[in-house]
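Q: For a teaching handout, I want to show students what a protein-ligand complex looks like in token form. Below are the inputs, and the small molecule is flavin mononucleotide. Please produce the holo structure.
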Amino acid sequence: MKTVIIYYTFGGATKREAERLAKELNAQLYRVKETHNRSLLGAFIPGGLWAMRRKSVSIQPLSVDLNAYDQIIIGCPVWAGYPAPAFNAIVQRLPNGKRIELFLCSGGGGSQKSESGTKALIEKKGCTVASYRDIHTGVKPGKMKE
Ligand SMILES: Cc1cc2nc3c(=O)[nH]c(=O)nc-3n(C[C@H](O)[C@H](O)[C@H](O)COP(=O)(O)O)c2cc1C
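A: Here is the structure, written as tokens, with flavin mononucleotide included.
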């Protein structure tokens, strides 16, 4: 099965997990970046609020053709209990009918309260959620050095 891992990271933890998974599955890896260079403060305000409201954010144009893959794995950090806003931007770009696996990286609080709503968003796009994983990274909020 042709698989792509598409992920957003702010602090680097989701990137590490995505890279590990890409090696394990021999999958293509693609990092989504926001258009705006977000600060740590900007991650909390308004980022956390936008996450809770399932608001999307402007991202750099995707240079990957998601249509070319049978399976799409999406990785994203948890902000305020919800996937970070870049997740919503990824979901908007999902082609119809794909098999989706999700992994959400949180400091430790998990994403239980938003899980069913997150799955519903993907199903609304005509895709199937094949798996959902909460990863507790133990990483404190911080911005990754590029
Ligand atoms: C704005 C913001 C909000 C966060 N909210 C939560 C939260 O609600 N629950 C939690 O367990 N961790 C929370 N965290 C911690 C991150 O989810 C955790 O550090 C995760 O590993 C970050 O992934 P990343 O390094 O790929 O960005 C938050 C971090 C940030 C920056």
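A: Two things your students might notice: The radius of gyration is 14 Å. Residues 9-15, 43-44, 47-48, 77-81, 105-109, 137, 139, 141 surround flavin mononucleotide (CB under 6 Å).
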